[in-house]
Amino acid sequence: MGRLLTIEDLKISFHILAGTVRAVDGVSFHIDQGETLGVVGESGCGKSVTAMALLQLIPMPPGELVGGRTEFEGMDLLRLNSDRIRQVRGNRISMIFQEPMTSLNPVFTIGNQIQEAIQLHQGLNAHQAEEKAVEMLDLVGISDPRRRVREYPHQLSGGMRQRVMIAMALSCKPALLIADEPTTALDVTVQAQILELMLDLQAKINMSIMMITHNLGVIAEVANRVIVMYCGKIVESADVHSIFHKPMHPYTRQLLASVPHLGAEQDRLQEIPGIVPSLYALPPGCDFHPRCAEAAEACKLRCPNLVEMEPSHWVACERAVKKS
């Protein structure tokens, strides 16, 4: 597999009345062609901001690109002008947003919203674009697609709206699909159908997926590699098998421990003590040390760098490095 996307030292801040929030603080990773990268972490850890920065969807101000560079098909996405990034968005890179009801425009039909990207990027006329929209709705498993293209978002169920979002995202056969919590608020049966659909379509067009979620079950189902984020930084990065069977960072271990297991004998669910610290008042040293049962004095003094503990398994933890 060739390298599709490379991100180096990405830093995004927000300037608000309470101070400067370092939402993404030195994030580096890559995505290969045809693979699925899982991005996990608690709410507010910088997952969505990282993805939206790639498509220049962050309002500036209050946001600010402090530093970093990307490499995608010979382009630095962070520094493209407005006309050029519009040619990339929805075409070479598509994004499925968290909540389809708020992402779909309630005053336009489903067909209108799918056709817009098709006409913009593929140069088809209105009739050709409508036929393509019908084809995409059929592809994502929506029954009677020729009738559905003339309906409005409120006339569809949550699962159908999510399928419409996928149809919109895949209408131009993107090289990279960013899926930001694509199964949020869906019941488990529909969730399984959506994930199966995404993987099936990925195989058909050799598409890469950046799967953003807090659901470790989804990650286990679809990801090849995983990065774990906390307070705007990557704390662990490895293949999905290593993350689940040999996690090295205390935060990753506690995330996994907090997931209920079928058939396991446990009186109560485990939890990660404390709360995520405020991003404009981070503790000194390691961001996780106030919540970490394994923290030592060194953890309060230095912010650890990512270290390759095993081939392609990176960890940012003083204790993990010492144990090795």
Radius of gyration using CA atoms only: 21 Å
Helix fraction? 25-40%
* Residues in β-strands, percent: 15-25%
Which spans have pLDDT < 50 for at least 5 consecutive residues? none
- The global form is globular
Largest sheet: 8 strands, mixed
Mean pLDDT, rounded to whole units?
Answer: 84
Strand order of the largest sheet: 5-6-7-3-8-9-11-10
How far apart are the first and last residues' alpha carbons, in Å?
Answer: 31 Å
Helical run tally: 12
What structural class do you assign from the helix and strand content? Answer: alpha/beta
* DSSP strand count: 11
Please write the string of helix (H) and strand (E) elements: EEEHEHEHHHHHEHEHEEHHEEH
Overview of the molecule:
This protein has an 8-stranded mixed beta sheet, sandwiched between helices. Helix 5 (126-139) crosses helix 7 (158-170). With 324 residues, it is an alpha/beta fold. It has helices at 47-54, 82-88, 100-103, 110-122, 126-139, 145-148, 158-170, 188-205, 216-222, 240-245, 250-257, 318-323, and strands at 3-16, 19-32, 36-40, 63-72, 93-96, 176-180, 208-212, 225-230, 233-239, 307-310, 313-315. The model has no long low-confidence stretch (mean pLDDT 84).
